[in-house]
Design brief:
The complex is a heterodimer. By secondary structure, chain A is of the alpha+beta class. Chain A folds into five domains: 141 residues, Alpha-Beta Plaits, CATH 3.30.70; 157 residues, Sulfite Reductase Hemoprotein, domain 1; 76 residues, Alpha-Beta Plaits, CATH 3.30.70.3340; 157 residues, Sulfite Reductase Hemoprotein, domain 1, CATH 3.30.413.10; 126 residues, Four Helix Bundle (Hemerythrin (Met), subunit A) (Up-down Bundle), CATH 1.20.120.330. In chain A, a hairpin with a 2-residue loop joins β4 and β5. The longest helix of chain A is centred in the C-terminal third of the chain and has 29 residues. Chain B is an alpha+beta fold. Chain B has one domain. In chain B, α2 packs across α3 and α2 runs antiparallel to α4. The chains are: A alpha+beta, B alpha+beta. Chains A and B meet through α4, β17, α12 and α14 of A and α1, β2, β3 and α3 of B. The structure holds protoporphyrin IX containing FE (HEM) and iron/sulfur cluster (SF4). The site of iron/sulfur cluster (SF4) has 15 residues of chain A, from loops. Iron/sulfur cluster (SF4) binds next to loops of chain A.
Chain lengths: 745, 191
């Protein structure tokens, strides 16, 4: 019977790089436990691997009457500032362009069962989240993901986040061309790229196959690409500086035609400019959008183009273009019409909202509606089996928190529908008013103010009950809800958007939502909605009834909701809502003081410090911490008698520390040891920057000697000496960096 | 072969219709009343998914949920972590004992106790660890002695049958049927 670990069991089955990364993270976990890594550095380390904090990880929770301490057994061990080690956390899993295979679904289902709470949550950026995960389970969780080709790297933190794309790209009837291979290439290229490691904040990228639909939402992204052909050439309209959040910005057109071979280098150039000039200290102004606003578009373009011109050439920029056909999807079944097949009850309603006729005759893309983006492990495995039965690994997640099976033969539709219904996955209404999108909100997010999921659940059931009687003109409205102004639920781009806030009323804090109307979902999130005022949470269903009712009654001709809101104006809408803004006294109706989906009296006291912005850890600090880990691993090799590996590990740690310092002056330091040593000598030794007050060049000389020496036999003594020297060298690098910062300040 | 990651489910004979909100309140009440040493953290509502957790009380060492997986409502006790060292028999025994205590806690709860009854002759054991306890006959053989010992203690001399669910993708899941009908008190007295 097996008693091995996942590491042993999956040995040889993981891509080498991913495997090494997870090993390193595991070592860092051990180092943190023994007090060798600073809380802040560790927080950023785990965030860059998608390991997020979760509500109540600061060790307290309001129970409706009092705030109780949660006595996690870890004592004073933390995984970030004010974040207890043992507190359950969230694991975000990056799914580039939302593309999944059946095997990947199976593995994630298993992980949700074994390490989380049996639920996979699809996010508003096509990712997957598991909640209530213990940090010590994350390395195995990552290994199991890596075994099916998924990495969580840079799913959070100040990095390039999941690259999103239209979920029907490649099968869409109106797209210019399939953006999948380009989004995949950019995601792969950017992952762990050295130019993307020193951002002040996150960077989000999206691809869209056309300009008029919504699917890609490029206007609200830091970098947005819209497919375009010009003179027979394939390329993109390239947008920069969009983003939601408390201060939403529409992206600006950077280039109206960027040839395909330029998208990788140009993105790289933007990243370099952002890393160099973007705000670092003030987190609230650190996104690309603020840099763009500060510099102005023209200056921003000039700087990026200047950077582009001096970028060292990289074959990866265009290598994928030779291989575009390898991304082509295929159907499993032959195309055939449904013909006269008997239709089960509910089929027509479902088909009218959840089935999209593909560009390819006889095939459809089927949307599996997931309430609140949630799906159980059992459902996920069953869905994987259905996908094996009907399609070939052509599965995508959507930003509306659903899952799409592409390439279903029309003739299979009624049967597939029956099977989905049996699994509880046959709900109709995808992309309509019942398909409410929501961020995690107060359920798990530390920053949540009001319960976005509670409200979404309530609206979903109320609207589903009325769906038959809803007026056609409002059926396809989008409702999107965020638990606070940070906009993770993308409320700005909904017809009816809501974000959580609170108001003091009668001496109590009462949950509210700000009503945001008329955001445009189509044309890639073409315009943002207008805030109309805060309404108590419990009145939001009435707000929807009031506003949609007025629209249906008073719209002129086929006036869109956006135009209607503009025409009647904010004042008129506010008037409509006046009656709904009042809160009855507590004695009269206490339900207003308890949020949706809650039983505790409302509080904002459970909020904690969010980790969206990551920790401000400079690139050098971060890399030096990595060198310490490397040196620690060398020590482990020594303990195991692997002297050569120990020696080489220690040397490599020294070289990396030197390289980290050189990067403060020159980003393009090559990887070759000789080059690093040469640059280090010139920049830090000859200048005496690295000199120790008492020991002069002593520590620098360790590197020079070890680099040059030839070892005939790797003995314990030799390895031991180099490890010791390496540790001193790294310490000296920290000291040197500290001195440089003082000088710079 | 060892794991402490063990889940135990008792099915309901009565109380399947208790609203999720009622469970939500009940579990929140448990958190309020909690004076340690168990760490109870939060309650989550998943009543919108089919055949999954309905209402989940999340703790540090264990979760307790009203659970619809396999299409039958019950209470699921899920042991995630333990400070106790021990072999499989000890972990199994501890998990079963804590699950019985949870069942009794529900049966005697001031809000839901009267409305609930659990099936007295059935329990489901799930080994939540695909690495250590893969879903295969060999695993069952390897733990048979431990199983017999714990179940023998739990149900005394009553005849017990165990069957492994045959679903290659599922975790190792054992349906245990015992002769007679056993209350939580009786089971706890036996342990
Ligand atoms: C100040 C802190 C935060 C800010 C400013 C922020 C902002 C945003 C924005 C603007 C989006 C999505 C819109 C887009 O597509 O660009 C987003 C995505 C998201 N946020 Fe946040 N967020 C913050 C913290 C958090 C926290 C603490 C959580 C909960 C743990 C969270 C959960 C999510 C989720 C689930 C998504 C979709 C994620 C994905 O797959 O990439 N956010 N965030
Ligand atoms: S919008 Fe606010 S509450 Fe919702 S996930 Fe983002 S930070 Fe949390």
């Amino acid at each position: 019977m097996s008693v091995q670990s996942w590491k042993e069991k999956l040995d040889g089955q993981l891509p080498e790089e991913l495997s090494a990364e997870v090993d390193t993270f595991e070592t860092q976990i051990e180092q943190k436990k023994s007090g060798q890594i600073d809380d802040r550095v560790f927080a950023e380390t785990r965030l860059r691997r998608g390991v997020y904090g979760q509500r109540y990880d600061n060790g307290q929770r309001f129970d409706g009457q009092i705030t109780k301490r949660l006595e996690y057994p870890c004592g004073e061990l933390f995984k970030g500032p004010d974040t207890y080690w043992d507190a359950p956390g969230m694991q975000r899993i990056k799914i580039p362009f939302g593309g999944l295979t059946a095997d990947q679904l199976d593995v994630m289902a298993d992980l949700a069962e074994e390490y989380a709470d049996d639920i996979l949550h699809i996010t508003t950026r096509q990712g997957v989240q598991l909640h209530f995960v213990h940090i010590e389970d994350t390395p195995d969780l990552m290994r199991r993901l890596a075994s099916v080709g998924i990495t969580t790297r840079e799913a959070c933190g100040n990095s390039i986040r999941n690259v999103t794309a239209c979920p029907i790209s490649g099968v869409c009837r109106t797209e210019t061309f399939d953006v999948t291979p380009y989004s995949k290439a950019l995601a792969t290229f950017m992952l762990g790229h050295p130019d993307c490691q020193d951002f002040g904040r996150k960077v989000k990228i999206a691809f869209s196959g056309c300009a008029h639909e919504a699917c890609g939402l490029t206007s609200m992204h830091d970098l947005g690409f819209i497919a375009k052909t010009q003179d027979g050439k394939v390329g993109f309209e390239f947008y920069v500086g969009g983003g939601l959040g408390a201060v939403p910005h529409q992206a600006k057109l950077f280039d109206d035609f960027l040839p395909a071979e330029e998208i990788l280098p140009m993105s790289q150039a933007v990243c370099r400019v952002f890393a160099r000039l973007g705000e670092k200290a003030n987190r609230a102004r650190a996104r690309v959008k603020f840099l763009l606003a500060k510099l102005g578009l023209e200056e921003f373009q000039r700087l990026v183009q200047e950077e582009r011109a001096i970028l060292p050439h990289d074959d990866a920029w265009t290598a994928y273009l030779d291989d575009l056909d390898s991304y082509k999807e295929e159907p499993l079944k032959i195309a055939a019409p449904l013909n006269g097949a008997a239709k089960p009850e509910g089929y027509d309603a479902w088909a009218s909202t959840n089935v999209y006729k593909q560009r390819q005759e006889g095939y459809v893309a089927v949307t599996v509606s997931l309430p609140l983006g949630d799906i159980t492990s059992d459902q996920t495995r069953a869905l994987a089996d259905l996908s094996r039965k009907y399609v070939k690994d052509t599965i995508r997640t959507t930003v509306e928190q659903n899952i799409i099976l592409r390439w279903v033969s029309e003739s299979d539709l009624t049967q597939l529908y029956g099977e989905l219904v049996a699994l509880g996955l046959g709900e109709p209404g995808a992309g309509t008013i019942v398909d409410v999108t929501t961020c995690p909100g107060t359920d798990t997010c530390k920053l949540g103010i009001s319960s976005s999921r509670g409200l979404a659940g309530e609206l979903r059931s109320q609207l589903a009950a009325q769906s038959m009687s809803l007026d056609e003109s409002i059926k396809n409205f989008r409702i999107k809800i965020s638990g606070c102004f940070n906009s993770c639920g993308q409320h700005h781009v909904a017809d009816l958007g809501f974000y959580g806030n609170s108001r003091r009323v009668n001496g109590y804090t009462v949950p509210h939502f700000q009503v945001v109307l008329g955001g445009q979902w189509t044309e890639n999130a073409g315009s943002y909605g207008l805030a109309m005022g805060a309404v108590p949470s419990k009145n939001i269903p009435a707000v929807i009834e009031c506003i949609t009712g007025n629209y249906v009654a008073n719209r002129q001709g086929d006036e869109s909701f956006q135009d209607y809101v503009k025409r009647i104006g904010k004042k008129e809408v506010k008037n409509m809502l006046t009656d709904l803004t009042s809160v009855p006294a507590h004695e009269e109706d206490a339900s207003y003081y308890v949020d949706w989906g809650e039983s505790r009296e409302f509080t904002v006291g459970d909020m904690g410090k969010g980790e969206c912005a990551g920790e401000v850890v400079t690139l050098v600090e971060f890399e030096l911490s990595g060198c310490e880990t490397e040196s620690f691993e060398a020590q482990l090799q020594l303990d195991e008698g692997n002297y050569e590996a120990a020696y080489k590990g220690a040397l490599s740690a020294m070289l990396h520390a030197a390289k980290a310092l050189i990067k403060t002056q020159w980003l393009d330091v090559p990887d070759a040891a000789d080059e690093i040593v040469k640059e280090f000598r010139e920049r830090f030794c000859d200048t005496e920057l690295f000199y120790n007050q008492f020991a002069g060049p002593k520590f620098a000389n360790y590197l020079f000697r070890v680099h040059e020496e030839e070892i005939s036999e790797y003995t314990q003594d030799v390895a031991h000496r180099v490890i010791e020297e390496g540790q001193l060298f790294i310490e000296q690098a920290y000291a040197c960096y500290g001195r440089m910062n003082v000088v710079n300040a | 072969m060892n794991t402490h990651k063990i889940a135990v489910k008792f099915y309901m004979d009565k109380g399947q219709d208790i609203a999720p909100e009622t469970w939500f309140k009940t579990f929140n009440k448990w958190i309020s009343a909690n004076a340690g040493p168990d760490v109870l953290i939060d309650v989550v509502d998943y009543s919108h998914v089919q055949n999954g957790p309905v209402t989940l009380l999340v703790g540090h060492e264990y979760d307790v949920s009203i659970d619809d997986a396999d299409g039958k409502r019950g209470v699921l006790f899920n042991l995630k972590r333990t400070a106790e060292e021990g072999d499989f028999a000890q972990h199994l025994s501890a998990a079963v004992k804590q699950a019985c205590e949870m069942r009794r806690r529900i049966e005697t709860d001031g809000d839901v106790g009267d409305q609930v009854a659990f099936r007295g002759n059935e329990v489901c054991l799930i080994l939540n660890d695909r690495l250590q306890t893969p879903n295969a006959d060999e695993t069952v053989q390897a733990i048979q002695t431990d199983l017999d010992a714990v179940l023998g203690k739990l149900y005394g001399d009553a005849k017990v049958s165990i069957s492994r669910r045959d679903d290659a993708k599922a975790r190792l899941t054992l349906d245990v049927q015992a002769e007679g009908s056993w209350t939580a008190d009786q089971l706890l007295a036996n342990l």
